[in-house]
Amino acid sequence: MLKNKNALITGSTSGIGLAAAHVMAKQGINLVLHGLMSESEGETLAKQFADDYGINTLFDGANLSDPEEITAMIERVSNQMGGIDILVNNAGIQHTESVDKFPVDKWNAIIAINLSSAFHTIQQTLPHMQQNNWGRIINIASVHGLVGSVNKSAYVAAKHGIVGLTKVVALENANNGITANSICPGWVETPLINKQIEDIAAAKNIDMAQAKHELITAKQPKAQMAQTNHIGELILFLCTDAASSITGSALPIDGAWTAQ
Ligand code: NAD
């Protein structure tokens, strides 16, 4: 059922997005790989996926903080591959600092990349999905789309925003064969959180393993991070027929973080 569908996964050059790309490619889903990577590295990655999985692939390096680059990417994909059936808004960045000192440029970048880019990609991919009466929109939010934490004003605002945006898209398309859901992970082992671990290690003069344990257990009851492919498998499930009534949801995968 999913073979030969076209998926765009933003931020699929690293972490959760890259793992999700492997999970989806195994099902024969054609992929637009995307992220901040040189054109030649991106093309090598896309060719590797095409060779390994026998799927059509494309790489695009659009900077998601620029709406014009997003538009150019979606147009290029439509022209070269056909429309996007599965949209995974995954790319994201982080900056931690108290709100009174939070740099304005970091605020603007986090809102643009973690939230507004999803509005643009959704707006531009919906017409194709509506025409086909089939589509899947999966937004990678965070537990921080459901609860707050200190020093993460922009990230928490953007992630709450994307949970809200997802609900509206689900409501507006409830009878169009399109589902829209947010996934809300707790800690996941990726480069995104390295700086937070390094900061704890430096502040407490402890090694990286101890710092990682402190970071996880400060909020998350399960003292282990989720693996990137666990998120990828949930994304894949949301694409199946069995998940066609799951829409408008914000699904935690968070080691009981938000159960408290
Ligand atoms: P990562 O740093 O490994 O990957 C981020 C991806 O986004 C990369 O491919 C990068 O190139 C891309 N990206 C960053 N800025 C971009 C820009 N301006 N334009 C285009 N692409 C850009 O991070 P990750 O941990 O895999 O995060 C993926 C998503 O999961 C993010 O939305 C993040 O907020 C969310 N998340 C992560 C965790 C975690 O613990 N790692 C927890 C909850 C939610």
Number of helices: 8
Query: What's the CATH architecture of the largest domain?
Result: 3-Layer(aba) Sandwich
- Shape annotation: globular
> Helix content range of the residues, please?
40-55%
> What is the radius of gyration?
18 Å
- Ligands (ions, cofactors included): nicotinamide-adenine-dinucleotide
Can you describe this structure?
The chain has 260 residues and is of the alpha/beta class. The protein has two domains: 6-188 and 225-259, NAD(P)-binding Rossmann-like Domain (Rossmann fold); 190-224. Helix content is 48%, strand content 13%. The radius of gyration is 18 Å and the shape is globular. Nicotinamide-adenine-dinucleotide binds at residues 11, 13-17, 35-36, 63-65, 90-93, 113-114, 140, 142, 185, 187-188, 190-193.
Secondary-structure blueprint of this entry?
Layout: E1 6-9, H1 15-25, E2 30-34, H2 39-53, E3 57-60, H3 67-81, E4 86-89, H4 104-132, E5 135-140, H5 153-172, E6 178-185, H6 194-204, H7 208-219, H8 228-239, E7 250-253
Parallel strand pairs: 1-2, 1-4, 2-3, 4-5, 5-6, 6-7
Helix pairs in contact: 1-8, 3-4, 4-5, 6-7
The structure holds nicotinamide-adenine-dinucleotide.
List keywords for this structure.
260 residues; alpha/beta; 2 domains; 7 strands; 48% helix; binds nicotinamide-adenine-dinucleotide; 3-hydroxybutyrate dehydrogenase; 3-hydroxybutyrate dehydrogenase activity; EC 1.1.1.30; oxidoreductase
Short overview:
Helix content is 48%, strand content 13%.
